Amino acid sequence: MNLTDLLKKYLRHLVLEKNLSGQTIKSYKTDLTPLCEQTELSIDIIDSFLAERARTFNYKPSSLARHLSSLRGFLNYLEEQKLLDFSPENLFAAPRMEKYLPQCLSVDEVSRVFENISASDKFGMRDMALIELLYSAGLRISEAVSLKLEHIQLDNGWLTPVGKGNKQRLVPLAGKAKENLEMWLKEWRHEFKPKTDTVILNFHGKKLSRIGAWKIIQARTAFLERSSISPHSFRHSFATHCLAGGMDLRILQELLGHANLSTTQIYTHLDNSYLKSEHHHFHPREKLVAGKNTALQ
Questions:
Q1: What are the tens digits of pLDDT across the range 90-112?
Q2: Given 10, 28, 267, 274, which residue is catalytic?
Q3: CB–CB of 171/159 below 8 Å?
Q4: Residue 232 known to be catalytic
């Protein structure tokens, strides 16, 4: 099969059937062109491609997540056309998948991030509102910085972000997240002298850029001393913690705005890894073993 021709058909499919934006189509083409220069597709070739992409982008979680999303969509399309000799699930199963996934913060780490942000100044409340959108609502960074005032219904406790393909969805907002967003909107946002109707603003009162959001996340998580924490890490953490709490996978799919359940299923692999690490950290018998090992050193 000619992979270059198949890529062109896939991109045309995204335009006609999925109604994706021109920028999104361009990103898919950029991500998949190196792979489609190969003469065939196999799990080993795809694995090598992902490893090379990881090195090229210095294991930056947001870039790797985008490549994985692009690849997953393309492979699912090829499978639907009966052009694959293997199932994409064979590639994205744990533990292979875990090599490429963005970092997931623990519940304790997320709590510490919020605790370390001051609620007594406009920048602290702006940054807290941003992280609430990423973690408490599970929004993509593009959705968070593009969210408009009309997309927040504080009285009813709903967000209506516009996701991929210009599709709007309902995301519940409650508890501390609702309280923090309400405080930001009613008490602090006006101090930026808004020149736009987006919820999150930059220093000049305009829409915050994705780079600006990335810098905020880097600054607010630096004390954790973990590398490569990105805005997408909070969305991953949202999904993982929801699954760990017992949320149904299809409900999570709706909250994340995934068109296909297969995209959401990557979090089941992440969830298994997360549950194991949390068990080792918190279970009293594990603590006892860890204490004995430390004493022997």
A1: 666 544 555 556 678 999 999 99
A2: 267
A3: yes
A4: yes
